[in-house]
Write a structure and sequence with these properties.
19% helix, alpha+beta, Fumarylacetoacetate hydrolase, domain 2, 12-stranded mixed sheet, 5-stranded mixed sheet, single chain
């Protein structure tokens, strides 16, 4: 099951709704599906954080009932225009080392989980046309896997960190490299990493727990059809659950995300990971993962 956000017509106006999709690929209003599946105590209306919190608390049997209801429904929307699956007040914490792995992979990340925060305003919708604000500046992109939080987590142990994960999504993390190098003198990267509406997120959230994430699950980045990054979950220098446990020091809420990208992927024989990848106006960006889908965007200027 995947969950997404889209604007769809209601009886009187267009309304932002939380949608769900099963194996047939059609999208349905999540609240209606919960009602059809007969899920006890299902909310009558919900935003994305509330939906994620509710799904996080369901037993496996209830999730299967929802998936069966999705597969039975015949009145879904085939291709809604999906929005970024992040609420305005939610946050993304992106994990890296004190030294990011270099293009030749000859550096090692810090043993301690560190990184930076990314604001909701820095994210763009799937299929967006990304506009580079300063045409003369250098920008680059990195493929990122984000673990989505479904239960509050504050200074949790490893088991609590795993339980707090409700799903996973993708991000094309775009950085203003000139600003990054300027800020590096102060050990800061907030300006470079938070250019408004520059980093696409989505296309949807795959509802799955930490144990359901296969270590061999592969994430790829293609630019203009050429494969530029390819790595698996097992390649991360910090595990997903370890990263969530570390970031829970700042208190994670439903809808927040803890992300890990290509920059901290350890090389495997025959698979050295270049990071980051330069982008320029006219480029087509695709970040893909079989379980989640494909996140697409174009660079318009």
């Amino acid at each position: 099951m995947r969950v997404a956000v889209a604007e769809l017509p209601s009886p009187f106006l267009v309304k932002t709704r939380v949608l769900a999709s099963g194996s047939n690929g059609a999208w349905h209003d999540l609240v209606a599906v919960l009602r059809e599946a007969g899920i006890p105590d299902a909310p009558g209306e919900c935003n994305l954080p509330r939906a994620l919190a509710f799904l996080s608390g369901l037993p496996a049997g209830s999730r299967r009932r929802i998936e069966h209801a999705l597969d039975r429904s015949s009145d879904g929307v085939a291709q809604p225009r999906l929005l970024k699956p992040l609420a305005p007040l939610s946050k993304i914490l992106l994990t890296e080392g004190s030294l990011a792995l270099s293009r030749s992979n000859d550096q090692r990340p810090a043993t301690m989980v560190v990184g930076f925060s990314k604001f909701a305003t820095a994210l763009a919708d799937p299929e967006s046309a990304i506009r580079l604000p300063e045409p003369g500046a250098r920008y680059d992109v990195e493929a990122v896997l984000a673990a989505v939080i479904g239960r509050p987590a504050s200074r949790v142990a490893a088991a609590g960190a795993a339980r707090s994960i409700v799903g996973f999504t993708l991000m094309a993390e775009i950085t203003d490299r000139d600003m990054f190098e300027t800020e590096a003198r102060t050990n800061n990267s907030l300006f470079a990493k938070n250019v408004p509406h520059l980093s696409p997120l989505g296309p949807a959230i795959w509802i799955a727990g930490a144990r359901e994430l296969d270590p061999d699950c592969e994430i790829t980045l293609s630019v203009n059809g050429a494969l530029r990054q390819r790595f698996t979950v097992a390649d991360f220098a910090h595990g997903v659950t370890d990263a969530v446990r570390a970031w829970s020091r700042v208190v994670l809420e439903p809808g927040d995300m803890v992300a890990l990208g290509a920059a901290i992927c350890r090389p495997r024989p025959g698979n050295e990971v270049d990071s980051p990848i330069p982008v320029a106006p006219g480029d087509r960006i695709e970040v893909a993962c079989p379980a989640i889908g494909m996140l697409r965007a174009t660079v318009s200027g």
